[in-house]
Amino acid sequence: MKTLYLLAIAIGSSVAAQTITFNGCHNLFDDQNFIFTKTGVDSNSKNIYITTPVDGQPCGGLGTCEFKIQWNNSLNRWEFLADEGNGTFTSPILMYYNATGNSVSPRPPSNTFGAWMENTAATGGQCGGSLTGANSTMTGDVHSSSLATSDVTKSRIQIFPNPVSDIIRISGIDNGHTIQIYNVDGRLIRTGAFDQKIDVSNLSAGVYVLKITTKKFESHEFKFVKK
């Protein structure tokens, strides 16, 4: 970037391509999409994303915008950074940060999960505070669930067997509405109507999270191991 840039958000892309599309903060950027592409993984196994092209995309009369999304391990948060030069990111400018999203996932949280807080010192407060689903879009290789597991010992709801090879059984719930299954990095891989028996025989071996939502919109999450 050759002048001060501010944030816009629209993150949308194919998960297979491992891209994020961002659109937002039109006060500072034109109404356009910025495409982030995964460029690598850091020492903490977190993905790194940089806008494509890394240098040359016009940005709301503010010059040329280059952005990066990466994990800051010392501050335990995801950061949305603007470049200070021509795509080198030697002294990037912090635009937004999210310290409430799932820190376990290698992918950053979406703009509807946790809080992407604006660094008003850099933006001049022109991006409306935190990023939300109302003022931006952020789609693609992001996640929107904490995948926190319930403490089974404190709940009357139980799943068994665990580990499981084919059928998970659910007991202690009579008002189930939907089920969702997430893999360990937060991707939703299955959703459907609630059933006390769930066939997981076609899942690959590994760790998953089963989320049960009731008709009263309560949610319960359980980690399980597929053998």
UniProtKB/TrEMBL annotation:
List, alphabetically, the InterPro entries matched: Secre_tail
Which Pfam families does this one have? Por_Secre_tail
Is-annotated flag, keyword Signal?
yes
Question: What are the boundaries of the signal sequence?
Answer: 1-17
Superkingdom of the organism of origin = Bacteria
Nucleotide-binding recorded as keyword: no
Alphabetical keyword list: Signal
Question: Where is each Secretion system C-terminal sorting domain found?
Answer: 159-219
What name is this protein filed under?
Answer: Secretion system C-terminal sorting domain-containing protein
